[in-house]
Amino acid sequence: MIASRSALFQLCFRSLFDPGRGYAFPCDSHGCVDLDHLGEQARNNYLYARAMVGRELSAPFVEPLESH
């Protein structure tokens, strides 16, 4: 998972075939991910996750980050 200090939500893509696996990216409450603040690997993972919706991953959903 990728965390951002200012993000209060994360956009989650869950695996359709392997429970507990998937991707999560910091986002706003509407699910908008700021690609300019992602590193290169995270940006590539985000683009991959979007391309694999319905094939390997579920449609994305927004969930609040757990506070520790």
The largest sheet, given as strand count, sense and whether it forms a barrel, is: 3 strands, antiparallel
The first-to-last residue Cα distance is 15 Å
Derived structural class = alpha+beta
What is the residue-averaged pLDDT? 91
Helix amount: 10-25%
Total number of beta strands:
3
Strand line-up in the sheet with most strands: 2-1-3
Helices and strands, in order, run as EEHE
Task: Give the tally of structural domains.
Answer: 1
Beta-strand residue fraction: 15-25%
Q: Can you tell me the overall shape?
A: globular
- Secondary structure tally, helices: 1
Roughly how many Å is the radius of gyration?
11 Å
- Spans of at least 5 consecutive residues with low confidence: none
Explained architecture:
- The protein is an alpha+beta fold.
- It has one domain.
- Helices cover 18% and strands 24% of the residues.
- A 3-stranded antiparallel β-sheet has the order 2-1-3, covered by helices on one side.
- A hairpin with a 7-residue loop joins β1 (9-14) and β2 (22-27).
- The chain starts with 8 loop residues before the first strand and ends with a strand.
- The mean pLDDT is 91.
Task: Name some characteristics of this structure.
68 residues, alpha+beta, three-stranded antiparallel β-sheet, 3 strands
Report a brief summary of the structure.
This protein has one helix at 40-51, and strands spanning 9-14, 22-27, 61-64.
